[in-house]
Automatic annotation (TrEMBL):
Cofactor(s) annotated in UniProt: FAD
Single annotated GO MF: NAD(P)H dehydrogenase (quinone) activity
Limits of the FAD/NAD(P)-binding domain: 9-320
Similarity comment: family membership: Belongs to the class-I pyridine nucleotide-disulfide oxidoreductase family.
Start and end residues of each Pyridine nucleotide-disulphide oxidoreductase dimerisation domain: 341-449
Chain sites annotated for binding FAD: 54, 118, 306
Binding site for NAD(+): 180-187, 203, 267
Cofactor note: Binds 1 FAD per subunit.
Keywords (A to Z) from UniProt: FAD, Flavoprotein, NAD, Nucleotide-binding, Pyruvate
Annotated protein name in UniProt: Pyruvate/2-oxoglutarate dehydrogenase complex, dihydrolipoamide dehydrogenase (E3) component
Matching InterPro entries: FAD/NAD-bd_sf, FAD/NAD-binding_dom, FAD/NAD-linked_Rdtase_dimer_sf, Pyr_nuc-diS_OxRdtase, Pyr_nucl-diS_OxRdtase_dimer
Taxonomic classification: Bacteria, Bacillati, Actinomycetota, Actinomycetes, Pseudonocardiales
Length: 457
């Protein structure tokens, strides 16, 4: 005998930041909505990613600033203690990795939560265990990603950490090898180094933050080195070994590193087969779900978040959620536009970027001009002194006379980026930006000399 299906308007599979947002928007609009979540409502960001890591960064930055006191204001004794960090993550941020508050927030909208792993089993149908859900209007997929573990000999079966484990540690290890020099790897590397851990970063590509401007990567590499982090780029790990007394032994093409702990931060993976997308005619061997500018992936199926491959950020997921909700509700709204997608890696200095890098602009545009302004030679940089490393790089389409990209590395780089994100988003002419008045002596005032360089004949 077949199961009796539960009929609703919309089924949201995966309640990450975008899934939670779209489910609430649709429920608030009066639709019957079921959210399906296999782990915690809210997804990776509040429990294992953005929030706990930024709590760590805030604490590590306080240590970093305190260590700058001797250069500026006398002396300060810095004795790091992880326990307030662990307590804030456990008690204030994640309530012990418990999503009760998020569930109540969702249920208050009229939505219903089904715990378990959802799978599309037919057009308009999601199955969770033995429960069959029929979606009259549509299915929204927001499954996020899992840590990708490289197939390195000896790695599987060792007690390595990913972001999922490291966010709940109660004690800083004595030594840590970080595999991967992307945003995840670097944020953790600096945090742990500042807490007194001996940190080594092994990055396979020739530069840290391979997607960033090379000038930005250079600044952050120099800072990490200055803080005692060992950095290897172009490094291929060949073998990993572990034993309880010795810890980890990591063999690269020419060196061997030992460490108490190993953090694998080598990117993310999706599993479209497990999601059952073939049932709606989609390629389940692909890495991401292709969506149109309204987040439609197939007839009656929308996808949002990391799985769409448009930048794995919480703000992307929530932005896409807004568009998908409007489309499902038949409301007008602007189609997705990623030209001014911002990103911030919360190292010190922060590495923030919007739009195209120089390399990508050269690949896409006929006439590209760039200009760099260095923060240490700006007035604010001079005043700031210790910790003033950084730069502002502008990328312009010189034919159109507008900025198409910008990178800011510096103290509060993510905040400085705001002005440049507006410029890229609104296509403000460079000539108009150059007429602006920039407050003295701010860090963002360093945008002005870069604009002046762009305007030179
Ligand atoms: C260490 C780290 C730090 C980060 N820091 C930042 C930051 O500072 N700023 C930023 O913008 N981004 C940051 N990110 C990225 C950010 O976490 C993600 O982009 C964000 O969580 C959005 O992801 P998502 O909406 O695609 O879904 P996710 O947050 O990944 O959530 C998806 C949810 O779906 C559930 N799920 C999956 N499959 C199923 C299924 N079949 N059935 C039921 N449930 C399912 C999962 O259990 C999960 O809860 C960071 C990432 C990491 C790893
Ligand atoms: N502040 C933020 O907004 C923030 C913070 C963390 C993560 N994120 C997002 O989460 C996603 C995941 O971040 P991530 O840093 O894990 O992934 P990533 O893909 O950005 O970086 C992974 C790095 O690991 C390297 N790598 C891969 N295999 C390797 C190997 N075998 N040995 C050595 N190095 C190897 C890659 O070259 C790359 O530099 C990214 O899209 C990122 O933008 C955002």
């Amino acid at each position: 005998m077949g199961q009796v299906a539960d009929e609703v308007d919309v089924v949201v599979v995966g309640m990450g930041p975008g899934g939670e947002d779209v489910a609430a928007r649709l429920a608030n609009a009066g639709l019957s909505v079921v959210g399906v979540e296999s782990r915690l409502v809210g997804g990776e960001c509040p429990y294992y990613a953005c929030i706990p890591t930024k709590i760590m960064v805030r604490a590590a930055d306080a240590l970093g600033e305190a260590r700058r006191v001797p250069e500026l204001a006398g002396s300060a004794e810095v004795r790091p203690d992880w326990s307030p960090v662990a307590a804030r993550i456990r008690d204030e941020a994640t309530t012990g990795w418990n999503d009760e508050i998020a569930v109540r927030r969702f249920e208050a909208t009229g939505g219903r939560l089904v715990r378990g792993t959802g799978r599309i089993t037919a057009p308009g149908e999601v199955t969770v265990g033995d429960q069959v859900l029929r979606a009259r209007r549509g299915i929204v997929l927001n499954p996020g990603t899992e840590p990708a573990i490289p197939p390195i000999e000896g790695l599987a079966g060792t007690p390595y950490w990913t972001n999922r484990e490291i966010v709940s540690i109660e004690q800083v290890p004595e030594s840590l090898v970080v595999l991967g020099g992307g945003p995840v790897g670097l944020e953790f590397a600096q945090v742990f180094a500042r807490f007194g851990c001996e940190v080594t970063v092994l990055e396979a590509r020739p530069q840290l933050l391979p997607l960033a401007e090379p000038e930005a990567a250079e600044v952050i590499t120099d800072r990490l080195l200055a803080e005692g982090v060992r950095v290897r780029v172009g490094s291929t790990v060949q073998r990993v070994g572990h034993d309880a007394s010795m810890g980890f032994r990591i063999t690269t093409d020419g060196e061997e590193f030992t460490a108490e702990r190993l953090l694998v931060a080598t990117g993310r993976r999706t599993d479209l087969r497990a999601l059952g997308v073939a049932a709606v005619g989609l390629d389940d061997t692909a890495r991401t779900l292709e969506v149109d500018t309204r987040m439609r992936a197939a007839e009656g199926v929308w996808a949002i978040g990391d799985v769409t491959g448009r930048g794995a950020f919480t703000h992307t997921s929530v932005y896409q959620s807004r568009i998908a909700a409007a489309d499902i509700l038949g409301e007008p709204g602007a189609p997705a536009d990623y030209r001014a997608m911002p990103s911030v890696t919360f190292t010190d200095p922060e590495v923030a970027a919007v739009g195209l890098t120089e390399t990508r602009a050269l690949a896409e545009r006929d006439r590209v001009r760039t200009a760099i302004s260095r923060l240490p030679v700006s007035t604010r940089g001079f005043i700031h002194k210790a910790g003033n490393e950084g730069l502002i790089k502008l990328v312009a389409d010189s034919q159109l006379g507008v900025l198409v990209g910008a990178t800011v590395v510096g103290p509060s780089g993510g905040e400085i980026l705001g002005a440049l994100a507006v410029a890229v988003h609104a296509e403000v002419p460079v000539a108009l930006l150059a007429e602006m008045i920039f407050a003295y002596p701010t860090f963002h005032r360093a945008i002005e000399p870069a604009l002046t360089k762009l305007m030179e004949p």
